[in-house]
Amino acid sequence: MIHVSSTPPAPVCILGLGLIGGSLLRVLADAGRPAYGYNRSAATVDAATAAGYDASTDLQATLERAAADDAVIVLATPVPALNAMLPAIAAHAPDCLVTDVVSVKETVTRLVEQHHPRARYVGGHPMAGTAHSGWEATDPALFDGAMWMVATHDDTDPADWLTVAGIARAAGAYVVPAADDAHDRAVAAISHNPHSTAAVTASVGAGESDLALRLAAGSFRDGTRVAGTAPDLQRAMLEGNAVALLNTLSETIDRLTAARDALRDTGSVEVVVGDGHRAREKYEAIANAAPQPIEGVVVGDAGWAGELRRQAHQGRVWIG
Tens digits of per-residue pLDDT, 215-224? Predict the structure, then answer.
């Protein structure tokens, strides 16, 4: 059994101070937790320090500080940047617990195994964001009530899991325990696929004429919102989850093809509209209900990880 320590929580070192990493720095520091960050952009670091936060453009010095502090290192960069970040951690802070806020998990796990095979690593992904990016878009309330996946496998160290889950809870989020592959399939369906269809919807609408865009209202605005995200960030996210996204795109294409054929042959879109309406009602019922906590699990007891995953698949969340 793992008991919660009464010692102060470990400092948090955040690598990447964009929307997610910067918001995490702000919420933790505002709550009084030791937290500092790195960003390669001097403009970002200048903005963060001007706002009263602890940030640096010196990656090596930041990691050496994390090693001295025994800080938890949070990777908050796009996937391609991890190829440089992980070797630096292995060189300068090899014993620190590492987590991340990247939207794919199997890819990150493979990169950790490749570049820092000795890492104490527990992956994570907060389901929070906006179409805006950069330090100027950060918000310490970004994670309030959000769902934060924390990777949960049978060989996960329970103390490290509790530490990472504690960061999510400190940020105001609910913890959703899940395995990497299950997470990636889920986010392909509810995040990465919508990014893809938003891009197509935006392109079709803009391809008509300026008349169409002048007439565009709520359905176009809401359906294309995420297409406004910086293209390089979208590509890193979607391409990083290519296998799972290919499956959801295939299903999307199959459903749209069936709808097109039904409209051509029968003049009806009843099936696709009915399926979508029922699915939206199910989502609203879940989203509007208070999250039910995971019960009867002590992290560290026999079978704890599997039981957390089982209850998470029933829609329950871990609140500590």
Answer: 999 999 999 9
pLDDT category at 6 given cuts 50, 70, 90 is low
**What's the whole-model pTM score?**
0.89
Residue type (1 letter), 134: G
C-alpha–C-alpha distance, residues 269 and 260, integer Å: 8
| Contacts (Cβ under 8 Å, ≥6 apart) of 78 | 102, 232, 233, 236, 237
Interatomic CA distance for residues 21 and 17, integer angstroms: 5
**CA 249 – CA 193 distance, rounded (Å):** 7
Closest listed residue to residue 39, CA positions, set 122, 114, 139, 133: 133
Contact 124, 149 (CB under 8 A): yes
Please state whether beta strands 35-38 and 72-75 pair in parallel, antiparallel, or not at all (unpaired): unpaired
Domains of the chain by start residue, with CATH: 13-178+290-312 (3.40.50.720), 184-288 (1.10.3660.10)
Residue 21 neighbours by CB distance under 10 Å: 24
- Give yes or no for a contact between 164 and 75, defined as CB atoms under 8 angstroms apart: no
pLDDT mean over 88-117: 97
Task: State the Rg of the chain over Cα.
Answer: 21
Q: What is the mean pLDDT of the segment spanning 175-186?
A: 97
Question: Residue 3 pLDDT more than 60?
Answer: no
Residue-wise pLDDT for 115-147, tens only, equals 999 999 999 999 997 767 789 999 999 999 999
Q: 46-49: long-range contacts at Cβ-Cβ below 8 A with a sequence spacing of 24 or more?
A: 47/135, 47/136, 48/17, 48/22, 48/135
